[in-house]
Amino acid sequence: MKTNKLLYVIFLSLTVLCFVEKATGSEKSALKDVFKDYFLIGGAFNHNLVSGEDPNAAEIAIKHFNTATSENDMKWSLIHPRPDQYNWEPADHFVDFTEKNNMVPIGHCLVWHSQVPRWTFRDDSGNQLTRDALLARMKDHITTVVGRYKGRVKGWDVVNEALNDDGTLRNSRWLQIIGEGKPEQQYDYIAKAFEYAHQADPDAELYYNDYSLSTDKEKCDGAVEIVKYLKSKGLRIDGVGIQLHAGLDYPDKESLEYCINTLAATGVKVMVTELDIRTQRRGYRGADISRINRQNTSDPNAASAEIQKKLADKYAEIFSILLKHKKVITRVTFWGVYDRTSWIRWGSPLLFDRNYKPKQAFDAVINTVQADM
Ligand code: 9MR
To answer: What is the whole-number distance in angstroms between the Cα of residue 71 and the centre of ligand 1?
Structure first.
């Protein structure tokens, strides 16, 4: 009787183990092995993943990725919520996690118009800061954050999303105050951010990062202008991040290739920094979260076989282009790990579904390497 019970327990445990294994796809090849001769491959990690509260997500990440970007915890409003208060713990967890698991950590992001507290632009009496005072505040922030992770974080998204879709500079508080409305000062805040980041960690790579670069040619040209400006001032810029928040029918091959070639021609590395694919067909295509949330469109068909096939095809198309440009593309990072925690709450944007299972798109991505050989 005892032996029977024991056998039953063993049988049950094995069944459960098999299920967990299948569920997280541990029998599949690891993305980082498959792409090792091409580029680094990674994901954006949220706090639950790096702090141990989402162990299945961590398991996927550890198996498949050799680079990671902090999804939110290094953004100004989270890491520096009040003038004299830094909140290091979540970002420390992120960097510790990447080191423990041999991943290249990427810091995101130092200067952005979004997720920056109001006090950043005001003095103690609530008046708008002068250009010099804002530059001093920006310097203090960058020096403190980059300095803390000096020699550990490999590269930083120094300036994020400074461009409008037509390639002109976004009229952010940074531009308004530091640019003072003078055309000759319009790139100053970007240049200063790169200068301060380089001073804080001379060995860190420095990136400009934006969305819709591969759908809007003018925007891509705008990023080229930024690179050229920084280079003309002798400042360090190592790469441009094409976020690549894609959809089932965009970007088209031609504009993605235009973007990769045009950026690479400036001599910088090209990185895909926030890859995902929206399965919902209509509506706004950019990555401005407030517009996405306002839209609030659900996608009841996201899990259907038809949509999953289209998703797999689009991922395969994108990866075959990325492989073709492997000489200039150094990193490909998904914006998230699995669908349930994606910022796109209503679709099926990533390679792993809401239950951590690899999707058809996962196999399609792996197969692009075989096709390239
Ligand atoms: O994925 C991030 C989400 O959790 C945050 O709520 C949001 C806040 O702005 O930012 C998301 O990440 C954005 C990234 O930092 C910059 N590019 C666009 C990304 C999606 O909005």
So the answer is: 7
What's the pLDDT tens digit per position in 212-258? Answer: 999 999 999 999 999 999 999 999 999 999 999 999 999 999 999 99
Q: Give the closest residue to 141 by CA, choosing from 127, 164, 159, 161.
A: 159
Q: Which of 73, 289, 335, 350 to mutate to test the pocket of ligand 1 (most atoms within 8 A of CB)?
A: 289
Atom in ligand 1 nearest the alpha carbon of residue 336: 1
Domains of the chain: 39-372 (3.20.20.80)
According to DSSP, the β-strands at 40-45 and 104-111 are unpaired
Q: Which amino acid is at 105?
A: P
Residues enclosing ligand 1, CB less than 6 A? 71-72, 114-115, 160, 211, 243, 274, 287, 289, 343
Biggest alpha carbon–alpha carbon distance for the chain: 87
Per DSSP, what are the bridge partners of residue 250? 247
Claim: this prediction has a pTM higher than 0.90: yes
DSSP string, 204-265: SEEEEEESSTTT-HHHHHHHHHHHHHHHHTT----EEEE--EEETTBS-HHHHHHHHHHHHT
